[in-house]
Design goal:
Strand order of the largest sheet: 1-4-5-3-2-12
CATH class of the largest domain: Alpha Beta
CATH topology of the largest domain: NADH Oxidase
Helix content: 25-40%
Order of helices and strands: EHEEHEEHHEHHEEEHEHHEE
Number of helices: 9
Structural class: alpha/beta
CATH architecture of the largest domain: 3-Layer(aba) Sandwich
Number of strands: 12
Mean pLDDT: 88
Shape: globular
């Protein structure tokens, strides 16, 4: 159940994280309505498996017996690539969708309020524990796909994706109030390739942008709980590739050509408010988990939406009223390399 209610007051400040294996005072008093601390920690752990630009993991969770507040972590917002926090809200929306699934399989049906307090700019969503019900088969299916979903920057196979799967991916986006268009035919593929490369060239001319990518690159053998590992970055990017890839320090040559006719999708929202961006993030994660369930892999291309004038050209080219939020390359391939995640104790505060 989604609501957009901007004037609801925020919660109190954080307290020390309690032991995940115990139930503190006020916790677990109503087993039908309020999850235990351990169950909530498990739910937050699932939320942290969401994708984020450069794997910055720009979220923080404040948990109380009444619910969970989802915040953007300002210290993890990319100041060069994401000055408006659009990508951070997209990532928090994806984490919110995982959180919804995790609570659902625990027998909860939380009420979700997006942007609940305009006075707290970091607060993007509030979940309250008001309903208890069994999880649906689809919720269990998507939840089971969470640990298997990962970005894949390597070449895919030239195996066509069945029309039935494409329809299911479009439906997944629509169910979260977003849209997903697939680019079909040489003209459409050429359009997205030209726009993506133009955006990538414009962005890469900025030395601060390149330094920001380098700052979130994690080289082999370097212990880390965030950023993009060198092994997950794919082969060394080449200028002739159909879609541009960021350079995350890979030294691996490309041993196989990228697919000649990739399935490229553009996911967008009805408008471009913070609420719309959060909804697009939830739609993105539902699409990615649906794809994972059907044995598909995906990578995300955000350069075309990072440059406003190019994003506008893409919107016009698609004939859409609402703005594009992310470009997806979808296909069949081996599972990508898993990116590290921060421990739950670093992203959650118990109130």
């Amino acid at each position: 159940m989604l609501q957009d209610h901007r004037d609801r007051p925020g919660g109190s400040g954080p307290k020390t994280l309690p032991d995940a294996g115990t139930t503190g005072e006020g916790w677990g008093m109503d087993q039908k309505m309020t999850p235990t601390v351990e169950a909530l920690v498990d739910a937050v752990a699932a939320a942290t498996r969401a994708p984020s630009m450069h794997n910055t993991q720009p979220w923080r969770f404040r948990v109380s017996p009444e619910g969970i507040d989802v915040h953007v972590d300002p210290e993890r917002v990319l100041p060069v690539a994401d000055p408006t926090w659009r990508a951070a809200r997209l990532a928090c929306g994806a984490a919110l969708f995982n959180l919804r699934l995790a609570l659902a399989v625990q027998g909860r049906s939380p009420v979700v309020t997006l942007m609940p307090d305009h006075r707290v700019t970091t607060l993007v969503a509030r979940l309250s524990f008001e309903h208890a019900r069994p999880a649906t088969p689809e919720e269990r299916m998507l939840f089971e796909a969470i640990p298997r979903r990962r970005s894949n920057r390597y070449p895919f196979l030239d195996t066509p994706i069945p029309l039935e799967y494409r329809a299911r991916l479009r439906d997944a986006a629509a169910r979260e109030s977003a849209w997903l268009d697939f680019l079909l035919g040489p003209a459409a593929i050429s359009m997205i390739s030209e726009l993506a490369h133009a955006a990538d060239r414009q962005l890469s001319r900025n030395p601060d942008y390149r330094a920001e990518i380098a700052g979130w690159t994690r080289y082999d053998g370097e212990p880390s709980t965030d950023g993009v590992p060198e092994a997950a970055g794919g082969p060394v990017p080449q200028p002739y590739e159909l879609l541009p890839r960021r350079d995350f320090g890979s030294r691996e040559p490309c041993r196989r050509d990228y697919e000649t006719e990739p399935l490229i999708g553009v996911l967008g929202s009805l408008s471009d408010s913070p609420t719309d961006q959060l909804m697009a993030g939830q739609a993105l994660q539902r699409v990615l988990l649906t794809a994972t369930h059907h044995g598909l892999v995906a990578s995300l291309i955000s350069q075309p939406v990072e440059v406003p004038e190019i994003c506008e050209q893409l919107r016009i080219g698609l004939g859409r009223y609402g703005p594009p939020q992310i470009v997806l390359r979808i296909g069949y391939g081996t599972p990508g390399v898993s990116a590290p995640r921060r421990p739950v104790s670093e992203v959650v505060d118990f109130v």
